[in-house]
Write a structure and sequence with these properties.
The complex is a heterodimer of chains A (517) and B (370). Chain A is an alpha+beta fold and 517 residues long. Chain A has 17 helices and 12 strands. Chain A has 3 domains: 9-124, no CATH class; 154-268, no CATH class; 284-451, no CATH class. Helix content of chain A is 46%, strand content 12%. In chain A, the strands form 3 sheets. Chain A has a 5-stranded antiparallel β-sheet with strand order 1-2-4-5-3, sandwiched between helices. Chain A has a 5-stranded antiparallel β-sheet with strand order 6-7-9-10-8, sandwiched between helices. The model of chain A has no long low-confidence stretch (mean pLDDT 88). Chain B has 370 residues and is an all-alpha fold. Chain B has 16 helices and no strands. The longest helix of chain B is centred in the N-terminal third of the chain and has 33 residues, at 80-112. The radius of gyration of chain B is 20 Å and the shape is globular. Classes of the chains: A alpha+beta (517), B mainly alpha (370). Chain A binds chain B through residues 314-315, 317-321, 426-429, 431-433, 436-437, 439-440, 443-444, 451, 453, 456-459, and chain B through 6, 8, 10-11, 109, 113-114, 117, 122, 125, 129, 132-133, 136, 140, 143-144, 146-148, 263-267, 270-271, 274-275, 277-278, 281.
């Protein structure tokens, strides 16, 4: 209490709040009388609260005596009891005696009510924040599968998860991060599944973060990842609640941040970056083939340009003679060595791509046409690049677009450049050295203790069923072994497929028999 | 579960295979035909069995002392100072082996793909690659070997399968060979190619079930030895013994002589050589890892990462000492013979003394029963 001039503690408290928040123009202070006799004050931030609830469920209710107590004589010491238990049509009420916390609650959009003669303040959850509707996830679209995506508000996101995972074993632990933003961060896991050490480690890493602003889950990712200098992402993010749920029941931990539509999933292995939700909702044979295509796309986006440079500049004897002649013919007017040519084209492609992302959609289309024309047609006819280079660059770019996870595609895009340079210096030998370095780095990476290339690297055959291809669901009865879950089986191992009976066999049909007769 | 004991039996087998298969495969048929012309596959088989003895001794020792490497248990067996001298010899030998492997492969690359690059560059690139990867712990070391294992095995089998088109069984007859006088030195030269299997002693202390070391070494030796015999048989089958004698790297010539169906790639030798970078890398990694790890254990350091860069200049200078390819192969043969004494006689001595003195390491308790 700072002021000592006032007569009553009630006025002191009002002065305190006013001193802390009063100079904001969006801060509202409203004096009134409870039951027409006891002076009281309502504090709130104007535009963060639900005015309807404030007017009718709170103000109106407190101004009039409840009908069942019309006759009663209310003494000051009963007042609080009656207000909380009989008067307010509101289920989220807290009593708070520490003035410091009143301010905390106010900034969070709650309403604080002080009543003369009562030390505690009533704190009411009246927050109403405008939010966008639940839409289709923009970055992870599927043809077959749920269409809902996370939005910014944490409570809605948690609802989306709970509604898909209706079990009491789902644990949601909310902590507060960010010295100034005081952002709510929710850690979700399955109590009876997830390895407790993993949950503890996630909590430990999160609680050690001491930063003033947490504006997105991406900020947290950079603090909790294992290797900060690796180009490869070690934490997966998603805006799909169904993906979060399936990761939870695999025994992973999900982290949601208030204000961010992207949930983080840990631990993450590399193979998760090329799996999609659709791999599991569509039938296994088709999706295994699609996944193969995706893997080829990844390989394209990483090594294709460097392979081209190496073969053209060092080992043209590898490719069939007719083709080699055609390539040499195409390169006839090009003044640069292959490595420079490819690097120039790659860089201009990156520039073009960056430009299309930043531009509004209507203009973006026009730009991409110009870009394609310039890079494709004009560069070739200007003698700036050979046609085959354009083909290579196009395949590479398309390949990187086909990688489902943007952050993983970004890593491969980046690594392409050193590989091209190595190819220009050492030819195929350089490409191989570069690939070995990349592979060794990936093999040494760990995400929360799980090897990054698992299940390949430690050699877990159970997990390999979901690596290059996607095995039928009934053939994968176990959860990923390296997550060391408390419960291993995800389906009944004795009877993975329900037995089928031929219910409508033509032989059983009576009319068939009649016809034959 | 013990956190430090993570390596499985299959991983050990993969480590052995990818360590043994390396740059030595390229001149292997030449060594074999020089010893026993058309009996080359047979002498390779004999060398495999010979090389297996050393591996057998090492796995028996490793199972006796499942918590220690040879650097540590030799001190228990033959006393502190003799053991340190022996360990130092092992370390020096594997440093030399590392340098020779890098040099040999550097020469191959310079001769057949990068004709204008100085050999120093290819050697230092290979050594740097090994150095960076040596700085990982033993679990990652096992992952690396396990990961590259199929990349090493399948291209070799692929080349062999494609070359069978040109092979003639007559070239392999008589299978006993014609001129048995060079048999013993030839077999020793080939057996020396298996020295990398010494890495077994470094990884047994990290093995989940050290009792399986023997099984792992049998599996590893069968795969690696089998591949050796197949490659020798295929090369001699395609070129014949006399022709093979004129080739410096007959296996590379074998790749050159084959082509893919449908003419996807005109020539396979460069592609094969490039894929072979992984095989050489794993061999190099093993011998360098063994060197640095043993040095770390000898000086009682907690980890060996310090030595990875510290040793690099020495290994590089060693690699550059031979004047040319011919001198290099003379040194390779010589070092191989000396190495056989070290990798065969030293473990044999240790095993004998440990049996006589009834020395035995601490068994791995609860992990063993899992």
């Amino acid at each position: 209490m700072t002021s000592t001039k006032s007569a009553s503690p009630f006025e002191d408290n009002i002065a305190f709040i006013q001193q802390q928040c009063g100079m904001n123009d969006d801060f509202a202070i409203r004096r009134f009388h409870v039951f027409g006799q006891y002076p009281a004050v309502i504090f709130c931030y104007d535009f963060m609260v639900d005015p309807q609830a404030l007017n009718f469920d709170i103000l109106k209710a407190m101004m009039y005596l409840p009908p069942q107590l019309r006759e009663a004589d209310i003494k000051p010491d009963q007042l609080l009891d009656i207000v909380v238990n009989d008067t307010l049509y509101y289920y989220k009420i807290k009593l708070e005696i520490r003035p410091k916390l009143w301010i905390d609650n106010l900034t969070r959009g709650r309403t604080v009510i002080l009543i003369d003669g009562i030390d505690e303040a009533l704190v009411l959850e009246t927050r109403q924040i405008d939010k966008r509707a639940i839409e289709q996830p923009a970055t992870e679209q599927v043809i077959r599968g749920p269409r809902e995506g996370f939005i910014e508000v944490l409570s809605t996101n948690l609802t989306l998860i709970r509604y898909r995972l209706q079990t009491s074993d789902l644990r949601v632990k909310v902590m507060e991060l960010g010295r100034r933003t005081k952002t709510a961060v929710a850690v979700c896991y399955m109590e009876d599944l997830t390895n407790p050490d993993l949950v503890e480690e996630v909590h430990r890493r999160l609680s050690k973060i001491d930063i003033d602003a947490v504006t997105d889950s991406g900020i947290l990712e950079q603090f909790i990842e294992d290797n900060h200098f690796s180009p490869f992402p070690q934490v997966q993010y998603t805006e799909r609640p169904d993906k979060v749920v399936s990761n939870l029941v695999e025994g992973r931990v999900c982290i949601l941040v208030d204000g961010s539509p992207l949930a983080l999933i840990v631990p993450t292995a590399f193979n998760q970056f090329y799996q999609t939700v659709e791999d599991y909702t569509e039938r296994f044979l088709l999706m295994s083939a699609v996944r193969f295509a995706r893997l080829i796309a990844i390989i394209f986006s990483l090594i294709f340009p460097s392979l081209y440079v190496a073969i053209i500049s060092f080992n043209p004897e590898l490719i069939p003679t007719e083709f080699a002649v055609a390539v040499a013919g195409g390169r006839a007017g090009v003044p640069f060595p292959a490595v420079v040519e490819v690097l120039i084209m790659e860089v201009s492609m990156e520039v073009l791509r960056e430009a299309t992302i930043r531009l509004p959609q209507q203009v973006g289309g026009a730009l991409s046409i110009v870009g394609v024309l310039v890079i494709g047609q004009a560069a070739v006819s200007a003698g700036f690049a050979s046609p085959i280079t354009v083909v290579i660059i196009a395949l590479t770019t398309i390949g990187s677009f086909a990688t489902p996870a943007y952050n993983a595609a970004l890593a491969l895009r980046l690594l392409r450049f050193p590989l091209v340079v190595l190819a220009g210096v050492f030819g195929l030998y350089g490409v191989m050295i570069g690939l070995i370095l990349i592979a060794n780095h990936m093999l040494s990476l760990k995400s929360f203790g799980v090897p990054y290339l698992s299940p390949l690297a430690p050699g877990i055959f159970q997990g390999m069923k979901d690596m290059l291809f996607r095995a039928p669901l009934w053939w994968m009865p176990k959860r990923p072994g390296l997550l060391q879950t408390q419960n291993l089986h995800r389906l009944n191992p004795d009877q993975p497929i329900p037995p089928s009976r031929n219910a409508k066999s033509p032989l059983d049909l009576s009319n068939m028999e009649e016809e034959e007769r | 579960m013990d956190k430090t004991r993570q390596i499985t039996m299959i991983q050990i087998a993969a480590i052995l295979v990818s360590t043994i298969i390396g740059v030595g495969v390229l001149p292997l048929p030449l060594f074999a035909v020089n010893a026993l012309d058309s009996g080359a596959p047979l002498i390779t088989l004999a060398a495999v069995l010979f090389g297996f003895i050393s591996l057998l001794l090492l796995s028996l020792l490793g199972m006796r002392f499942p918590r220690q490497t040879i650097i540590q248990y030799s001190e228990q067996i033959i006393g502190k100072w003799p053991a340190r001298a022996g360990s130092l010899l092992v370390i020096v030998f594997f440093a030399v082996l590392t340098s020779l492997t890098a040099r040999e492969f550097g020469e191959v690359v310079v001769t057949s793909v990068l004709k204008n690059t100085p050999v120093e560059v290819t050697v230092i690139v290979m050594l740097l690659l090994a150095t960076f990867s040596t700085r990982n712990d033993v679990t990652v070391f096992a992952y690396i070997h396990y990961f590259y294992f199929p990349l090493i095995l399948f291209p070799a089998l692929f080349i062999v399968a494609l070359s069978l088109k040109n092979a003639d069984a007559l070239n392999l007859q008589p299978i006993w060979g014609n001129d048995p006088q060079g048999v013993i030195p030839g077999a020793l030269t080939i057996a020396a190619l298996f020295q990398g299997s010494f890495i077994l002693t470094s990884v047994i202390p990290s093995m989940r079930r050290p009792q399986k070391a023997l099984l792992a070494s049998v599996v590893g030796m069968v795969i690696a030895g089998g591949l050796y015999v197949i490659i020798v048989a295929a090369t001699v089958g395609v070129f014949g013994a006399e022709e093979t004698k004129k080739l410096l790297w007959p296996t590379l010539e074998l790749a050159k002589a084959t082509s893919l169906p449908a003419n996807v790639l005109e020539r396979l030798d460069a592609a094969f050589l490039i894929v072979w970078v992984t095989a050489v890398f794993t061999t190099l990694l093993s011998s360098y890892f063994l060197t640095t790890q043993s040095l770390g254990l000898l000086f009682r350091l907690r980890d060996h990462k310090l030595f990875a860069f510290f040793l690099l200049p020495f290994v590089f200078v060693l690699a550059m000492l031979p004047q040319n390819i011919v001198q290099m192969y003379t040194i390779v043969r010589m070092v191989g013979r000396i190495g056989l004494i070290l990798t065969l006689a030293y473990p044999a001595l240790l095993l004998l003394v440990s049996i006589l003195r009834k020395k035995r390491g601490e068994p791995v308790g609860e992990v063993a029963q899992r």
